[in-house]
Write a structure and sequence with these properties.
Layout: H1 2-60, H2 78-84, H3 87-118, H4 125-137, H5 140-150, H6 157-164, H7 181-206, H8 210-218, H9 223-234, H10 236-251, H11 255-261, H12 270-280, H13 284-314
Length: 315
């Protein structure tokens, strides 16, 4: 009898857990259906405005289509094989990767410093926060054109100031010289986009409980220890989002490079290379193949970032 009395409660617990699991599964199913219903209109719009042009571009990459030419003919992987053997394409790939690595690293470092400074209380903090957003609020083409004028070797104010201070013996063609073109664009992009990273990190800092810093101060922790033990671990989600957004933007960068440096091979990105083939050379098939490989590179980097971000979050 005692054995039966022990077994019956166990059976009752199992039945209750199963009966509780069924409503939970049904609720999860309803949530998925509701989410799909809400996402369906957006996915439909994306399929029209994004998926169809993307598939059309990929298809053109397998043809010999030209602007103003006759009907496009299927030529298989010829464009992609020619592209992989093109030194100009590989130079644009290297330029894009260097640009992405330097700009994202610089923006993350400066954004962290600015976010930490703006997170402190000081007189006029709200005015400073508003002023920091100004570079990011200016349209990219406008800010790029302003910087192109300032970096000009003939009438640019940057050369004039550096020459007057004795730091330069003569004006430098910052956006035309092979050794300075890419780094000039990186600095302009960092000036433009660092406020965006700073705002994301500042939002992450705002949700960190202040009690943690008070406890660390009572324990005698130094500022560096507090940063690496409290701030940085709790700021990982916001930092990861900022890095993903900025890396994807940097890999497909076009406007800021094209407005400042044009088709300069020293700073040409993959997007600028694809535009040159499509518009100037009117080779739609070759340019579409370049755009398709750009999409593949961005997709691969996205997957790597997401997987690495998941491992970083678990660490």
């Amino acid at each position: 009898m005692r054995v039966l009395e022990k077994i019956r409660p166990e059976r009752d617990d199992r039945q209750s857990s199963r009966s509780g699991a069924r409503p939970a599964a049904a609720l999860a199913r309803r949530r998925r259906v509701t989410a799909a219903a809400f996402l369906a209109p957006m996915l439909g719009v994306l399929a029209v405005v994004a998926a169809w042009p993307l598939l059309h571009t990929i298809w053109f990459g397998f043809t010999n289509a030209e602007l103003g030419g006759g009907p496009a003919q299927f030529i298989g992987l010829h464009n992609f094989a020619s592209l992989l053997a093109d030194p100009g394409w590989w130079r644009s790939v290297v330029n894009t990767l260097i640009f992405a690595a330097l700009s994202v690293a610089l923006e993350a470092a400066l954004g962290m410093v600015i976010a930490l400074a703006l997170n402190r209380r000081f007189p006029g903090r709200f005015l400073v926060r508003a002023a920091v957003i100004v570079p990011w609020a200016i349209p990219t083409v406008v800010s790029a054109k302003l910087w192109a004028w300032m970096l000009n070797d003939v009438f640019g104010i940057i050369n004039a100031v550096l020459v007057d201070l004795g730091l330069l013996g003569r004006p430098v063609a910052w956006v035309a010289a092979p050794h300075t073109a890419l780094f000039s664009v990186v600095l302009v992009d960092a000036w433009k986009t660092t406020p965006f990273v700073a705002l994301l990190l500042l939002a992450g800092l705002q949700v960190i409980p202040g009690e943690l810093y008070e406890a660390a101060e009572i324990d005698g922790a130094r500022p560096a220890q507090t940063f690496f033990s409290i701030t940085l671990p709790l700021l990982r989600p916001a930092l990861l989002v900022a890095l993903i957004f900025r890396t994807l933007d940097a890999l497909r960068v076009f406007d800021i490079i094209y407005v400042i440096a044009g088709d300069n091979p020293a700073s040409m990105s993959m997007s600028v290379f694809a535009r040159q083939q499509l518009v100037e050379f009117q080779d739609v098939g070759y340019g579409s193949a370049a755009a398709t490989l750009l999409f593949v590179v961005v997709a691969i980097v996205t997957v790597i970032y997401v997987r690495a971000g998941g491992l970083w979050q678990e660490a």
